[in-house]
UniProtKB/TrEMBL annotation:
Region annotated Disordered, chain positions: 1-59
Domain of life from the UniProt record: Bacteria
Name of this chain's protein: DUF397 domain-containing protein
Residue ranges constituting the DUF397 domain according to the UniProt record: 22-73
Length: 80
């Protein structure tokens, strides 16, 4: 795993599979936590369980991912 700084000066954890996509995990994730990783894939954004790198990957269109991230940032999916 490599650690780098984003333009917003946040730490970013990047996981590289051999000759594969760059998987990213939230900097807010904790060891043993319920985390997902994301990567740019042909056809959209891949989402996988951070504890099962060889497991299934859900791919969503890039526009759908962008919409979801925007909604989350606006608090539209917060629990009451």
């Amino acid at each position: 795993m490599a650690t780098s700084r984003t333009p917003q000066n946040r730490t970013e954890h990047v996981l590289r599979d051999a000759a594969g996509p760059r998987w990213r995990k939230s900097t807010r994730s904790v060891p043993g936590g319920e985390c997902v990783e994301t990567a740019s894939l042909p056809g959209g954004i891949g989402i996988r369980d951070s504890k099962d790198a060889g497991g299934p990957v859900i791919t969503v269109p890039s526009t759908g991912w962008q919409d979801l991230v925007r909604q989350i940032k606006k608090g539209e999916h917060d629990l009451p």
